[in-house]
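Need tokens for this chain, all 171 residues.
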Amino acid sequence: MRFKKSVEEILNKQINAEFWSAYLYLSMSSYLAQKGYSGFANWMRVQYQEEISHALKIFDYVLSRGGDVKLTPIDKVETEWKDINEIFQSTYDHECLVTDMIHECYEVAVKERDHATANMLNWFIDEQAEEEEAAMEIIDKLKIIGSKGSGLYMLDRELASRTFTDETQEA
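Here are the structure tokens for all 171 residues:
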């Protein structure tokens, strides 16, 4: 069954948004690495990898349903931030925006009675709750430890241990 045009269009919009998100997190990773925060940079690099895998999950889904994937140029992303607190607040805010976009995709799928797409998007709805929670957890820790000193060093070391697991392949 071929997609209805509205479903195909919104999924293409989401694919491109996921690639933009990846680019944003890679920019954050670069910024943090340049500031000497290798653990924070690692955390953002894993975010980058996750966003690429999310884009590809939708990309592959569209193709598997006989749809056309339309990639667009990636818009410019930020490259400078005031501090780590601002980066993680931006991360949280961005993940909330992505959540809204996923919900919009879901609503279009439901409106068009495309239950297979709505079902596929349930994975993303759950994933977004986890993404928001992970960013908020780091924000909460930064509030406790501040933006300087041994607490920041310890959190940087903790975040260095994060590794990428492609959960899109397990779903």
